[in-house]
Amino acid sequence: xxxxxxxxxxxxxxxxxxxxxxxxxxxxxxxxxxxxxxxxxxxxxxxxxxxxxxxxxxxxxxxxxxxxxxxxxxxxxxxxxxxxxxxxxxxxxxxxxxxxxxxxxxxxxxxxxxxxxxxxxxxxxxxxxxxxxxxxxxxxxxxxxxxxxxxxxxxxxxxxxxxxxxxxxxxxxxxxxxxxxxxxxxxxxxxxxxxxxxxxxxxxxxxxxxxxxxxxxxxxxxxxxxxxxxxxxxxxxxxxxxxxxxxxxxxxxxxxxxxxxxxxxxxxxxxxxxxxxxxxxxxxxxxxxxxxxxxxxxxxxxxxxxxxxxxxxxxxxxxxxxxxxxxxxxxxxxxxxxxxxxxxxxxxxxxxxxxxxxxxxxxxxxxxxxxxxxxxxxx
Length: 379
Ligand code: CAA
Known about the structure:
51% of the residues lie in helices and 15% in strands. It is of the alpha+beta class. The protein folds into 3 domains: 7-120, Butyryl-Coa Dehydrogenase, subunit A, domain 1 (Orthogonal Bundle); 122-231, Butyryl-CoA Dehydrogenase, subunit A, domain 2 (Beta Barrel); 234-377, Butyryl-CoA Dehydrogenase, subunit A, domain 3, CATH 1.20.140.10. The strands form 3 sheets. The chain has a 4-stranded antiparallel beta sheet with strand order 2-3-7-6, covered by helices on one side. A hairpin with a 2-residue loop joins strand 8 (269-270) and strand 9. The longest helix is centred in the middle third of the chain and has 37 residues, at 231-267. The relative contact order is 0.12. Acetoacetyl-coenzyme A (CAA) binds at residues 85, 89, 123, 125-126, 132, 134-135, 158, 178, 232-233, 236-237, 239-240, 313, 362-364, 368, 371-372.
């Protein structure tokens, strides 16, 4: 597989890096402390084309490939993993889902606004009793002829209070099991939606995570994505791509931890020399660098397969499994490299550790990724 970047890839990567350093870095510690969503910065990300990167230009998107998306996600995530998850969900779960499976009306009415970041999207699959076991949907979408009536609660919804549009998975026909689940586009302004309190999280504290309650929410039938009963397959297919986004987020944390450590190791002196001269530190840096390189290759492989319209479920699960482990490893080693300074907020690496952990949980835990990989291996 050929990973020579085009000039466009490099331009996207550099633009994302510049933006992250200029606009995200200055307030990232404060936002983490205060659990403050990077509202202004996400708006700018929309203006710069980072919120609908792979969307067809006919629907206001950037028309870019998934490789560009991986590169941009890595750069944004290096600096601010909270802004990055907002970007990932909007791009790969919401925009991609509507672009690939939505109707013309849905693309005109919803995708065009999502692609520019004018409206942010959220993906509502998880429930209090349906996380990994996603077929066990309790939220119902009762078929009322020309509309559905949604009742139920969704949990841990990224962009929960920021989103203007939600894609909600809900059970229409219990007897059909997962084949009775539908995916519906729900506007925030529809009657009957209650946003729960913001979750007080370990990491990605700037991201906007809420539970959402739906009480007799009336959704027109034309807002259903795909055929009746396609909702679970929709969610699974879209998550295969979403996992490339989260893998790239984890890659960004892993490479951010390495970059911070390289910089610090050349500045900090102990025993009369820069700590970079100590073999104990060199070994850490080498191991971190290998993990970054391998995680990047896995992310790019999954992205390439997706761009080439080949099967990428196994590749994206592998990328997410490995990159999230790399993020945890590198964040811990970055703290160790920084010593006491690594344990305080000013040097960023303690936040990276807290942010890294979620990449092993959302969009399918590491254990779920192993299930996906094993199923593909044993086919
Ligand atoms: N790609 C495509 N189709 C898939 C698939 C995949 N990765 N995984 C399962 N399917 C299909 C199966 O082929 C099957 O269809 P057929 O019967 O037609 O073959 C159907 O889906 C049901 O699958 P299973 O029979 O395998 O169902 P299961 O209950 O045994 O396992 C699961 C399903 C793979 C564990 C699934 O529930 C799963 O992926 N769970 C994790 C859920 C998840 O990732 N949640 C993330 C929440 S969103 C989020 O985190 C966003 C955010 O805010 C950051």
